[in-house]
Amino acid sequence: MRRAGLGEGHSGNYVASGYSVHEEENEHLQEGLRAKVSALKSLTIDIGTEVKYQNKMLDDMDSDFDSTGGLLGATIGRVKQLSRGSQTKLLCYMLLFCFFVFFILYWFIKLR
């Protein structure tokens, strides 16, 4: 028995049309894959740009913290030098002034 359309003369056309259907499907899938790859490429470029920006920001913060650490170290050294000397009266005044400033700040924040 022969099926309709699968005669001896039509078998080459059937194979060729099946091949073109698969070829079109492959091209369609290839275009979809190409679009996804380009989206991933742009995303990775954006991530790289953001990472460079964040690294620059971290480097700036590191240098700021280093300079602040040096400033605080020098200040602590001066306070230690004051406490070793005979200027304890000056140190007491300085501590009282600090407590006064903190009290005023606390009172101001509490009223807000």
From TrEMBL:
Localisation per UniProt entry: Endomembrane system; Endoplasmic reticulum membrane; Golgi apparatus, cis-Golgi network membrane
CDD domains referenced in this protein's UniProt entry, alphabetically: SNARE_Bet1
Any GO BP: vesicle-mediated transport
Transmembrane region(s): 90-109
Domain T-SNARE coiled-coil homology: 20-82
Top-level division of the source organism's lineage: Eukaryota
One GO cellular component, as annotated: Golgi apparatus
Record SUPFAM superfamilies: SNARE fusion complex
Keyword presence, Kinase: no
UniProtKB keywords: Coiled coil, Endoplasmic reticulum, ER-Golgi transport, Golgi apparatus, Membrane, Phosphoprotein, Protein transport, Transmembrane, Transmembrane helix, Transport
Keyword Ubl conjugation: no
Protein family: Belongs to the BET1 family.
Subunit structure: Interacts with SNARE complex members GOSR2, SEC22B and STX5. Interacts with LMAN1/ERGIC53. Interacts with STX17.
Main function: Required for vesicular transport from the ER to the Golgi complex. Functions as a SNARE involved in the docking process of ER-derived vesicles with the cis-Golgi membrane.
PANTHER family linked to this entry: GOLGI SNARE BET1-RELATED
Protein name (record): BET1 homolog
Organism: Stegastes partitus (bicolor damselfish)
